Amino acid sequence: MARIPAGVAAVRTAVRRALPPSGLLLVACSGGADSLALASAARFVAPGRVGLVTVDHGLQAGSDARALSVAAWAGDAGFDPVEVAAVAVGGRPGGPEAAARDARYEALSAVAARVGAVAVLLGHTRDDQAETVLLALARGAGPRGIAGMPARRGIFVRPLLEVSRAETRKACAAQGLVPWDDPHNVDPAFARSRVRGAALPALVEALGPAVVANLARTAGQVAADNAALDSLARDALLSAYGSDGLEISVLSGMVSAVRTRVLHAWARELGASGSALSHRHVEALDALITDWHGQGPVHLPGDIRVARVRGRLVRVA
């Protein structure tokens, strides 16, 4: 029996470990090396229950033809169903990268719901995770950002977070798959492209190739710590509820890492958007507890105001 090439084996093993045992699976495939290798592995591991969706962001000339080309390959390769989702990126909040990401995830969720998929497989690799950690560090994003991309969140599954980008390229080459290289991935206008093309290679040169795996491993370790602290915070939030807000006396007895998570969760319950709620908002709420000197209400996203009133944090008009 011919030996399976190492890259192919690495991707297939990762996919086999990650897939739900039953139900329709959708692979999100741009035509790049990572998602092509993922798609091929998923079809091999779970024949007969793998479909494919490719998203046309409309940001480049010929993007519609590229999406149709990926769909045609998928149809010939036996994926079923095969979907092309065209999205509108313009007019969304945030920068172009964030807007494209939000539009893509909305489209993937909609297709999955329509066809009854139990999971959408994403092709993010260990290298992507390392880049995400570096970007989070640069933004001062804190533990939630440093935790990087989760292996699973809702319907989305990332089987390749422990597989390198080099391995996905080797997997494609071994199977005769010709990936498309997105020019946005090397465009210095995008922060991730600058990390990929300059910052991370500089770290590898200075600290050795293990830095990529170590950054990705750090994300997993921080994510585990976050999960434990979030569990403690859920219980702590319940203990802090008073008649019309949160009791300062209870909040002040919590350790900072738990209390700030309680405040973040409570702000979300009040209606503040998670994407707009920043550490500055949480710090301002925390100052109403730990640095109280009569300051006025804290303004949260969504036109929400919180004040300290008679020993409680309460929402005010």
UniProtKB/TrEMBL annotation:
Its EC number is 6.3.4.19. Residues 49-246 form the PTS EIIA type-4 domain. It holds the Pfam family ATP_bind_3. GO terms for molecular function: tRNA(Ile)-lysidine synthase activity. Signal peptide: none annotated. Gene3D superfamilies: 1.20.59.20, HUPs. It is an enzyme of class 6 (ligase). It catalyses: cytidine(34) in tRNA(Ile2) + L-lysine + ATP = lysidine(34) in tRNA(Ile2) + AMP + diphosphate + H(+). ATP binds at S30, G31, G32, A33, D34, S35. The keyword ATP-binding applies. The keyword Nucleotide-binding applies. Keywords: ATP-binding, Cytoplasm, Ligase, Nucleotide-binding, tRNA processing. Coiled coil: none annotated. It is found in: Cytoplasm. Its main location: cytoplasm. InterPro entries: PTS_EIIA_man-typ, Rossmann-like_a/b/a_fold, TilS/TtcA_N, tRNA_Ile_lys_synt, tRNA_Ile_lys_synt_N, tRNA_Ile_lys_synt_subst-bd. Belongs to the tRNA(Ile)-lysidine synthase family. The N-terminal region contains the highly conserved SGGXDS motif, predicted to be a P-loop motif involved in ATP binding. Ligates lysine onto the cytidine present at position 34 of the AUA codon-specific tRNA(Ile) that contains the anticodon CAU, in an ATP-dependent manner. Cytidine is converted to lysidine, thus changing the amino acid specificity of the tRNA from methionine to isoleucine. This is tRNA(Ile)-lysidine synthase.
